[in-house]
Amino acid sequence: MRFINFLYLCVGAQGALYILISEISMDIEFAGLIGVIIGTLLTLFANYILSERQRKHELEKLKIEQLNERKVYLRGKYEKVVGLMLKAADTVNEAYFHQLNGGAPKNIEEEFINAGIEIETLIYVYFHELRDVSDEFSGELSNFTLKMQSSKFELSEAELRKLQAKHDELFCLVQTCANKYT
Fold this sequence. Notes:
- The protein has 5 helices and no strands.
- The protein is mainly alpha-helical.
């Protein structure tokens, strides 16, 4: 009987041991599953953080490129305004020279009008800080253009000086903007 009890006890211990081992292995499997899930979540989180940093870096880089492109574009427009202003001043001087020599200005009206329109358009679109002086200069250019288009073109020295003064004022203001646009 003792032997049978001993066998029951051994079988019971073995069963208890089997149950204990199966619970431990279930805990190990569960712990492994939890570890895999946590590892996956940490990897996804790390990838998300890295991709966000990369995205922000790319956006900053893109902004810098756009600013540089805009700066180059505005530099081109600025140089065009300066060139057109010099062309307009040359046209005025040429017309005055022709008047002093008794001749009429030769086909410079259209060039002059187009240069004036381009100057005004560029200033109004791109260089807002020049608008006030540009309006005064445009008024003088309009008076000059009307005189050029009349059959009797005469430009007094006072009118020439007034136009040149407005041109010089606008040109000086344009030159003060040189650091901003070049």
